[in-house]
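Much of the work behind modern protein science is quiet bookkeeping, done one molecule at a time. The protein below has been through that process, and both of its lines are reproduced in full.
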Amino acid sequence: MIIVPADEQSIRQAADVIRSGGLIAYPTETYYGLGVDPYNQHALRKLFKIKKRAAHLPILVLIAGIKQAEKLAALPLPKSFTQLAEQFWPGPITLVCAAHPELPSELTGGTATIGMRQSSHHVARKLVKAFGGPVTATSANLSGGAPANSAAQVAAYFADDIDIILDSGETTGTKGSTLVKCEHGSIECIRQGMIDFQTIKEKNLTL
């Protein structure tokens, strides 16, 4: 494991690690996240193992925007998905919808759904761009434990199980992202987070 300042060179290095099947940690606007290639089943299994995460729990991913969402989702995207993305992305809201059938079952947890978010944190956004595709963003913690909000906390949790940690200081988030399930004709709050669900419901959505 190495801890490096989250500068441009280190972000490119981290993207290369993900590309080669490795596992990294990086800051988001909520907490530090654990990043692997969501299409790499071996890397996903390693991620579940070090987190001690139950196999039926899906893993959310960070994306660059709607165009990437269309590659991960079963199309067409629900109108509520695109409308909420337009209003709240980039930001701490994870939108969940039906997954593309070819996504690894390890990623979806067998739920046939996928959660996606466009982060507002500059390091996370640069990482997704440098990698050229979606990156997993499950919180950096042992399953059931408090999420890490610093590189030092990530290191304390995982010792040598992570290849590289991008250190950008402490994150400012006090909660995780709000999880909203988007279906054709409805939305549902899966988890309250940094954005209050009541605020989301008050938007004029065309479901």
